[in-house]
Amino acid sequence: MSAMEEVIRKLAYELWEQAGRPDGRSDEFWFTARIELERREETGDTQLGAPVRRRAEAAPHESAADWGKRPRGFEM
Predict the structure, then answer these.
(1) What are phi and psi of 69, to 5 degrees?
(2) Which range of residues forms the domain containing residue 32?
(3) What is the CA radius of gyration of the chain?
(4) pLDDT of res. 6
(5) Which end of the chain is less enclosed by CB atoms within 10 A, N or C?
(6) Which contacts of 47-53 are long-range, i.e. CB under 8 A and separated by 24 or more positions?
(7) Is residue 65 part of a domain?
(8) Is residue 22 part of a domain?
(9) Structural domain includes residue 7
(10) Angle subtended at Cα 30 by Cα 27 and Cα 36, rounded to the nearest 5 degrees
(11) pLDDT value of position 30
């Protein structure tokens, strides 16, 4: 593994943890990390850009019939 791939792997892991360790999205985090590192190189910025968002899931107390009835912009 090259040094750049190792840096991408570590950043992808950080992003994955920040997103709540979702299953089945490894490619998404790998490519997001790669793009983020390219952005950092271009701008000289050391801060993370936009985070990878968690996928929307119904709150445990909501039924399938209630899903989507919350007002837009509501965050838990």
Answers:
(1) -90, -10
(2) 3-43
(3) 16
(4) 92
(5) C
(6) 48/15, 51/15, 51/18, 51/19, 52/15, 52/16, 52/18, 52/19, 52/28, 53/19
(7) no
(8) yes
(9) yes
(10) 135
(11) 94
Question: Tokens in use for 67?
Answer: 């899903």
For 33, counting Cβ atoms within 10 Å of its Cβ (0-12 exposed, 13-18 middle, 19+ buried), the class is buried
pLDDT reported for residue 64: 56
* 73, pLDDT greater than 80: no
Please tell me the distance from the alpha carbon of residue 40 to that of residue 67, in angstroms, as a whole number. 38
Closest CA to 22 of 65, 51, 47, 46: 51
pTM above 0.70, yes or no: no
Q: Is residue 27 part of a domain?
A: yes
- CB-based contacts of 45: which residues, under 8 Å, 6+ apart? 39
Distance of alpha carbon 71 from alpha carbon 17, whole angstroms: 28
